[in-house]
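Good morning C.,

I know you're traveling, so I'll keep this short. The sequence:
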Amino acid sequence: MRTHGLHRKALTGPVTPARGLKPYVVMALDMSLYALGSLIALLAASVGLKLLGSALVAAGIVRMFLVGHDACHGSFFATKRLNNILGRIAFLPSMTAFTLWDVGHNVAHHGFNNLKGRDQVWIPYSMAEFERLPRYRRVLERIYRSGVGCGLYYLVELWWKKLFFASRAQIGSGRMKYKLDSALVSLGAIAWVAIVGIVAYRTHQNFWLLAAVAIALPFALWNSIIGFVVFLHHTHPGIAWFHKRREWQSNRAYLTATVNVRLPLGIGGFLHNIMEHSAHHVNPRISMFGLASAQRQLNTHTDDAMLSYRLDWKSYRDLVRRCKLYDYSAHTWLDWRGVVTSTVVLPVAPAPV
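The tokens, ready to paste straight into the viewer:
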């Protein structure tokens, strides 16, 4: 994992895993939230309460995934062994294969964020590329970037293709450890379906209703939440994407092509501070416990190149409207017709084409 010199030194917050009981308490609380939601979804008498249980299950999945995310970075527990074991457990509810997440997120995304051909997440098409796509794929892309299709994007383009029995064509390798971790999450899912079936049989409830509220709906909500979060991290009218590695390097994309998004109602804290994304990209080894402090310190040591804003309905609608396609030569965002909607101001001017 690369480091980033002066910017990393600017972060004086915790850059090592949290010590003591704190990480274990957080993981236990998140697992308890998942378990409580599951009990309500499975055993509550009314459909309304079951839907509440579904929401709590989804919240538990999100928070446990973020624990697994930190563990995969080696920043949650004190030892590599604990991170590997407990990180896999934390990833089970989201059906995320630990080693596939590592290669896609730690290596491809953090190593080359916003560099076309290396990064794997929310890469915008150019106008010419979009026009060459089959009709069905153009329709899908329009849905993905509609503002409400983030969950479908994550489910299809990331989870199904790259995080669950991913093919060699998708990730460039077919190592046995990827298959074993995919098998592990499959066993976890089978066990959970079996538990739901047993509860349905013992309590004389409809299995398909219980499967919907305890499994399908929470999984759909989880995909929507994580898809939305990841979309915000690297999509904005002021954020650049690159197809030339030298230009990407000179513009410090690890800092300038990430966004610090402030969410209302304390949602950022509930999401284990993952929206403090600039600090996370400068140093992925900072745990969730130190990210807020690290982001504040980064804000005082960087110039205007780092983008930070507070999300509201107006800003989100504007972002979605503008960020459809991207001109990698002119560094402009385009709409579906190819009309320029935003020009990105780069810290380092691009070389003449």
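Safe travels,
E.
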